[in-house]
Amino acid sequence: MQFEFSTVARIIFGSGKLNSIGGIASEFGKSAFIVTGGPKSISDRLVNLLEAQEISCSIVKIEQEPTIDLIHTLVNLARQTSPDLVIGLGGGSALDTAKAIAVLKSNPGEITDYLEVIGLHKPILNPSLPLIAIPTTSGTGAEVTKNAVIISTQHNIKVSLRSSYLLPKIALVDPELSVSVPPLITAFTGLDALTQLIEPFTCNDPNPLTDVLCREGIQRIARSIYQVFDNGVDLQAREEMSIASLFGGLALSNAKLGAIHGLAGPIGGEIPAPHGAICACLLPIVMKANLSAITERAPGHPALKRYNLIGKILSSDPTANADAGIQWIQNFCLHAKIPPLSAYGLTGEKFDIIMEKAVISSSMKGNPIRLSLVEMRAILQKSLQ
After folding, report:
1. What pLDDT is attached to residue 35?
2. Can you tell me the distance from the alpha carbon of 237 to that of 228, in angstroms, rounded to the nearest whole number?
């Protein structure tokens, strides 16, 4: 057995931990470039805490998932202001944007020099500026991942900027910051976190360290996602979801993903749907397709036992199997009224280009079994309903 595990230098977790940001940030310098996608009340509080430590702040607010053009603009701005550190505050989009800015500020050239798939995919040679990642949602785990997902509007695809240098210096996870997230976004991000626990656990190259994180994270989501959806101010449930999201980020950084993310990237390049909404819709559909393919073509596959274990954890039934886990997810999707992807404009006309891009994606290569084009088309068709 061989495996690796890498993560950020320091993880700070706990309700109220944002209050310590001034002293933490002052270790890296006296000027901060802040990328925020979170509520203004939280970003204002962040700035006040930093300024109390005599740290000057340049702040940009983003309202969208990062595009190549947006990153280009913000990197040029950061190069002009020459900050000592970068802080990302918000959901996955804000954190990925901050990671891209931090690493490109200290490496020459343009973002396309380093992007996978559509870029030159050059190696990133220089360490990034010190980066502090502060999530305000519980979903992507981007505070501990070594990639940033960027949209190419020219190619209609999401691709990654990937390097160990993208790992933040500090991940500060304060569950209180997620309390104001509305129910539907809570559901999207929560199911995204669940996806990022299930896929590394069932991938074709699992990691014994991430296996432990995945099992624990799935269990925390099973006992808290309904509560946090129905009562967003339930801080204990928010803490559970924050831990699960953190574990998902650690897992996907050190194991592989699968067909959900393999399809989600191309879909996200074709329709204006949030990544979490796409994963939420695809999760039970792809699980069912994988389970069917494994049962039919590889009944001895070790992933089958793992899917069965997921069913036991989610359903809280030690006698349950994989079908029970899929049913549990479907039930929550109905409870949260997760919309089909047709609500965002996905049509059958886009299936061929989505599948063409999905087949060559790095995430698809981690799926426990190779899905045929017929199976992928069936998944996409079901996502419209």
Report:
1. 98
2. 5
